[in-house]
Amino acid sequence: STDSGEAINITTTTINDTTQAPTMLLPDNLLASLSPMLDMYLPPAVRDFLVSCHRAITSWLGFDPTILLSLGPIVWAAKRLWSEVKMLLVEDIICNWFTARVEVGDDDPIFIHIMRWVAVQPNSAKTRFLQADTIAGSADDHDEDDEAGAAAAAGAAAVKTAITTSATSVSTSTSTTNNTTDPSNTTAAAAAKNKKKQAPTILPNGEACLNFSTHKHQKPPRFLPAVNVPYTFTFAGTYFWLNRTRSNIAHQSEWRGLSMRREENLVITCVGFSAGPIKHFIQFTKEWNHNRQAATTVVRRPARPEMRIYGGRHVWTEVADRPIRPMDTVVLDEKQKLMVLQDMNEYLHRDTAQWYGERGIPLRRGYLFHGPPGTGKTSLSFALAGVFGLDIFVISLLDQNLTEDDLGMLFTNLPRRCVVLLEDIDTAGLVNRKDETDEESSSSSESSGSDAGGSSDSDDDYLMSEKKRALEVIFLEGKLARKKRKGKGKQVTAEQEALEKEVAEKLAALKEMLKEGNDEEKADETVTDEKNTTPEKEKQKPAAPEGEEKPTSSADDARETGEKITKQESSSTTDKKKKPMTAKEKKHKKKQKRKRMSKTFAATTLHNLDLVRRQYGRRRPSPYDRERGISLSGLLNAIDGVASHEGRVLIMTTNKPEKLDEALLRPGRVDIQIAFLNATQEQVRELFERMYEADVVNPATVTFTQVGNKVTASTTSAATTLPPVGHSPHTGVASPDGTGTGTGTTAEKDEEKQQQPPIDPKIVDLKLLDDNNLRKSSISSCSSDATVIGEEDNAAAPPLVPIITAAAAATAKDKGKQQEPAEEKTESPVPLHITPLTRQELQKIAREFSLRIPASQILSPAEIQGFLLRRKKDPRRALAEVDKWVEELVKAKESKSKILDAKAI
Ligand SMILES: Nc1ncnc2c1ncn2[C@@H]1O[C@H](COP(=O)(O)OP(=O)(O)OP(=O)(O)O)[C@@H](O)[C@H]1O
Question: Compositional bias of type Basic and acidic residues: which residue ranges (predicted)?
Fold first, then answer.
């Protein structure tokens, strides 16, 4: 207390010392109030020092600085006032009166379009508040692959020099790159360690395996505007604000109850009285996105069940963005292809909708593609979507999660024009619900004691019918309880009464059904008891004469019923065993079996209905409990019901057309049927040519340059100067000389000639190598710019066919006559390993290959494609190995085996 008294005195002194300043009153109070604290926590020396500092500052400033602390609340209040005024002025008056705004929900593609566009804007990088987003890549993302490929190639280049020979073993070699950075640098050390990890695996032919382990790290994320932070940008001279907002929306669904969904919105604002600039911007982003995706077909599938409940755009989800499949890559009868193309073109025409409308015909078109697996049904569907630039919506009726309600919802949420691909329409368990109900009722009537035998004797169905009835009762009870709760205090409505009556009736019926089952069971038991006692009586009868066949146990019955057969029983069944069972006996036996199975359930249900209620009544039966699977009527309703979408192209595919219901095939549902068959020899030839046509080079444009001990083969993008292979009206006709001039004009031909490189003395003109030589020669790569390294380097490459040499070819040029290449190998120091494929040769090989495929059309195009893909760089090898493969495949098919000899694959 003494200390505090001192403090007060000191403070008073201070005030006295500064009596000139009128503002001293405030500090007086302040310091006076602080002084007990100062006394408590600070030693007197420090306190004195602080007080003298305060005095000095006050006299220097001319006012006490602690006054500012008192000003704080005033400033805060002023700021609040200003923010209110600003909100009123800026947001309510200026924003509402002088700006235009457009909102976009995240369920709209525009949302994605805008986000994608914003992400690539240079000023996005400068913005301080952003959201980082990892970009999901697709297999068709070529630039990514190129990067990875380049990285691997670089790695390969590094290791290639380190490869000694080991032609047969696959070895993993560590990169020889020296790490020259300071080893103490941990980042560099980690990088070095990584490099070690990424060392590519080298194949016997010297090729390095690609390695994508660091791929995802190389790809930078994209940066999007952060949530609730305004993002500004200028577009076409207009200043825009973009505000991204997020909220949680509650959703009540019939079977899932209350759920929350996160929803995002974009609010685009610009200054002005019109939303025109925003509309223009949105249109621009839409086109911008379209241009990026111009060469792709967007594939959509039904969204996850938990998303589908939100309806609208949430029922479909984009699953892929595939490069367009060119129509001429689908090998099919040209007439059929043309027919579908023309029909679809006419259907999708703008005037067609009006034409249909005027006649009151629903605008729908359906196609059925049927045929064995792997014959091109899906491929043609995708190609058609590509030709017409439509998105493709794929539904597989095998999807276990798909209900009829979902199917209806999917069909009503389609865009105006699209292709809907309904796959496997035969295998989707198209159960006719009516039949199912009939079966059920017959089964239940049978179970309730009637003698009328049902067509279905499935024990599961029998149990299900009881379970279903119990569930139905529980469901109705719940409904009734809810109704009562709602109408509490009010009069009982007629609806409630009816419901009550229905519940009582259904419950009684169920109880009756289960009771009857139990009674019958008991009756059966009594009969069995009687039977059991019969032998006792029989015992008293005189024994059977000797020599008569002794009764044996009825093993069959015992096995089937699972019951213990007593000795007595066995003797009573001796006669039964001798003569076959009558139909009535069989039926009785089945009934007994069913009753045994239902016994547990019946007992539980009858005596512990409350237990069942608790077990099944916790949630209402979901549509999945009741409506799993698609019935025929459900499918028909979806594809052409009243609410079904008009304008779509429906393509249905099946492997078993004979299983389809006639109702599904009637015109209006299926307008054109296309049969897909296994590959004919002509189709095989076409498939072969398509597979390798990109590797074809024009001999006139291939040059081989020798630098020291190294020969380089290069072309001037010959593949592009040649017309595509094929004889269809779409693909043009290749000229017989293989130079592709068949479809070109004279001017084009002249231009082509001019593009040919000048002849170098060391250049080998491949025109001089005749077809026979080319066929015999080796081909390890047909790339447009391949490097041929010395013999040593290529020792690892499998020598498939004899090698020709550049020197031999050059000699041939000089002499103007054909050479036998195989013998020339020893004469030349520079082997030529790459022999490009000419169109002429490709056509010859393709023809030869197709003739080796059985004409009986037992192989599908997918099988042929699979075989060729495994030899995609080597058409000559494909030809050499085809016989063995066909032999194995035919053998496997005949024996219905699915396993092929590994060597033949
Ligand atoms: N007629 C064909 N023309 C070109 N390629 C084909 C043809 N048939 C099959 N293919 C090739 O075989 C593969 C499988 O073809 P696709 O999926 O179109 O067959 P599908 O008839 O739809 O088979 P599934 O009935 O099993 O669905 C594809 O990679 C495709 O390129």
Answer: 524-567
